[in-house]
Amino acid sequence: MADLDTFRREARAWLEANAPKIAYEPVPSTDDLCWGGRKVAYEPGVKQWLDVMASRGWTAPTWPAEYGGGGLDRDEARVLSQEMASLGLRPPLIGFGLSMIGPLLLQEGSEELRREHLPGIIRGEVRWCQGYSEPGAGSDLASLQTRAVVDGDDFVLNGQKVWTSYADKADWMFILVRTDPDAPKHEGITFLLMDMATPGVSVRPIRLISGASPFCETFLTDARVPRRNVVGRVNGGWTMAKALLGHERTMIAGMGTSDRTTTSDSLPDYAREYLGVEAGRLSDPVLRDRIAQLEIDRRCFELTLARSRDGMKAGHKPGPETSIFKLYGTELNQRRREMMVQIAGPQGLGWDGEGFSDDEIRVTRDWLRSRGNSIEGGTSEVQLNIIAKRVLGLPD
Ligand SMILES: Cc1cc2nc3c(=O)[nH]c(=O)nc-3n(C[C@H](O)[C@H](O)[C@H](O)COP(=O)(O)OP(=O)(O)OC[C@H]3O[C@@H](n4cnc5c(N)ncnc54)[C@H](O)[C@@H]3O)c2cc1C
To answer: Is there a single domain that holds both residue 114 and residue 132?
Structure first.
């Protein structure tokens, strides 16, 4: 414990000495955080914060030091994140490298692939995207048709992916391909790592009604990917796909635990701003009850998730229970976003134009974006199926 106290003191002092001013500035949404990669144009200070944290491996605090990670144990990592939170520091880096493919490589990747890819993720040099969904394969992902045929030392890929978040900004993709069309559908899939600069890979952003283009279509025409880029074994990709989804679902579930709002530090503070206070308490008793219940649910879920993450850091592989987290975390985030719109009243229904602050427009947009949480990473219905079959053991 004395060691942990020393670590806390040293970590805090180091953070205070090294964090640039911008690291203390609140960020309106995850899109505004640093995702790294070769294509990013950094705001001044953001790259400095990334580099200084990466130099200690603290962009990936629990990853082994031999790959450039922080090498912290789970208690130290918890202390570090507590100190960052108490100083109000933003994360120096986020992305699918840190939250999805990195953890999978640590769990299942060969030493060669780990050495090739983990340092670039930790330093924020490479941004990753996920090539799972296809026009005919969403919930029924194992029906995917993108073909990969062996030719010499390479696979040659042909097909199409869809809903590829940020493919236009990514440098590498982890992709599921069909390598044996004659095998049962779950047994003919391979998990590959593909450089987006490979000839034959083209990306077309999908423009949404909001004007934003967070998703892309990705087309593959005779794209050559080295055979050594297989994670796991050829035709063993379904096991890798599920393992990665365990990490993805835990990450999405974490959205339900945030206690910050766009405008204030906490939901009760945000409600006080809009609804006013009487005798030190929120003036609307019904909303007061609902906010209290949401905060209790959020805190309980946060602790459950922290326990599970501790288990993962101690080597426990995420299993089908991550579907429970994904389902519940999604519902919590959606409840919270809806409540924020409700609290703001008409001011929570701005889209753009006059009469709404940037923060109020953000509240509306975050509320709409949260609807996607129950689709991405596998829909809520699919999570319920997994919970029924693989957690509760119910018959088909
Ligand atoms: C914000 C967002 C980001 C995304 N990012 C990515 C990405 O980066 N990479 C990627 O590969 N994909 C991505 N996706 C795609 C996502 O994985 C799919 O949308 C999702 O798996 C559902 O597939 P689908 O859209 O084809 O819907 P469908 O599978 O066609 O489902 C339609 C409806 O039918 C229901 N349904 C389907 N099967 C069953 C069943 N067996 N039992 C009960 N109900 C069922 C579903 O729950 C849903 O309500 C993203 C999606 C969103 C919303």
So the answer is: no
Residue 388's pLDDT is: 96
Q: Which domain holds residue 108?
A: 2-122
Per the CB < 8 A criterion, the answer to whether 72 and 196 are in contact is: no
Same-domain status, 221 and 277 = no
Domain final residue pick, 190, 218, 235: 235
Instruction: Find out whether the beta carbon of 375 lies less than 6 Å from any atom of ligand 1.
Output: yes
Nearest-angstrom CA–CA distance, 130 and 176: 9
Same structural domain, 213 and 336: no
Indicate if 382 and 255 belong to the same structural domain: yes
CA distances for 28 relative to 218, 262, 269, 358, angstroms: 29, 6, 16, 10
Domains: count for the chain = 3
Rounded to an integer, what distance in angstroms lies between the CA atom of residue 186 and that of residue 57?
37
For the chain, list residues with pLDDT below 70: 1, 259-265
The confidence score (pLDDT) of residue 112 equals 97
88 and 175 in a single domain? The answer is no
Quick one: 245 and 376 in the same domain? Answer: yes
Q: What is the CATH number of the domain that holds 291?
A: 1.20.140.10
Closest CA to 130 of 160, 107, 101, 93: 101
Question: Angle 165-168-161 (CA atoms, 0-180°, nearest 5)?
Answer: 55
pLDDT of residue 54: 98
Per-residue pLDDT of 105-141, as tens digits, reads 999 999 999 999 999 999 999 999 999 999 999 999 9
Q: How far is the CA of 114 from the centre of ligand 1 (A)?
A: 30
pTM above threshold 0.90: yes
Nearest CA to ligand 1 atom 29: 139
CATH of residue 7's domain is 1.10.540.10
CA 309 to CA 247: how far, in whole Å?
A: 10
Pocket test for ligand 1, best of 141, 163, 173 (most atoms within 8 A of CB): 163
Helix (H, G, I), strand (E, B) or coil at 122: helix
Query: 106 and 159: one domain?
Result: no
User: 341: Cβ below 6 Å to ligand 1?
Assistant: no
The pLDDT of residue 262 is: 66
